[in-house]
Design goal:
About 50% of the residues lie in helices and about 5% in strands. The protein has about 220 residues and is mainly alpha-helical.
């Protein structure tokens, strides 16, 4: 690891950004460095302007991808190198004009019905019915389920914030039935692990990747 990359990681950690955000910002700077085949510290402001134009006009990055590139590179130059260039006052991701794809209830049931393993089907059903993010769902604990108030306590969500979400009766019953199968005292969705240990003894939640792999594989898209 170079000293420059190490310094950026330290800045990211001091800022309190999540691990996923840190990875995305580091990847954005690495891609900039690879584009010009040199250290990002040697890139000029004009080269940076041309790179953002390249992402916009040639690569046609989506708004979320462009936002990550801008935020990550801006963080590196302003926080790590302490260069406050006017380019960052100009560049903005293009506004999204697409309407979101909204599935019907029948379509959602059909998709979930194709998930072969019950542990992934229950996890995904909980995520969908409660409006959770993927990691929020996999990290759920037994103590997070408040059946008296029919609420779920979501811990360390986006922005490291806690919140409560409504818990549908049907989802509660699904969670109870699944928990009866493994009876882990802490985790709702314990990881099976390489050694296929008893789920009741597992100490780690199932990974995001394992849940994503429950669906048919799709092409996926790191200075």
């Amino acid at each position: 690891m170079t000293e420059l990359r190490k310094r950026m990681i330290e800045c990211l950690q001091l800022r309190g950004l999540s691990e996923r955000t840190q990875e995305a910002y580091l990847r954005a700077v690495r891609q900039l460095s690879e584009h010009y085949h040199k250290s990002p510290a040697l890139i000029t402001e004009d080269e940076l302007r041309q790179y953002f134009l390249y992402l916009k006009n040639v690569k046609h990055h989506s708004r979320p991808t462009m936002t990550i590139a801008i935020c990550g590179i801006k963080f590196f130059f302003e926080r790590t190198l302490e260069k406050h260039w006017t380019t960052f006052n100009l560049v903005r991701p293009a506004p999204e004009k697409k309407l979101p794809v909204i599935l019907s209830l029948a379509e959602v049931r059909q998709i979930l019905g194709r998930v072969r393993l019950p542990r992934y089907r229950v996890c995904l059903s909980t995520i969908y019915s409660c409006g959770l993010r993927l990691q929020e769902g996999t990290n759920l604990r037994v103590a997070d389920i408040d059946s008296a108030r029919m609420m779920i306590h979501v811990r360390h969500g986006k922005g490291a914030k806690d919140r409560y979400v409504p818990l549908p009766e049907r989802t509660l019953q699904l969670l109870r039935q699944y928990w009866q199968q493994h009876r882990n005292p802490v985790l709702l969705f314990p990881a099976l692990g390489r050694d296929h240990i008893d789920l009741a003894q597992a100490t780690e939640p199932m990974s995001r990747c394992s849940v994503q792999d429950a669906f048919p594989r799709r092409p996926q898209r790191e200075w």
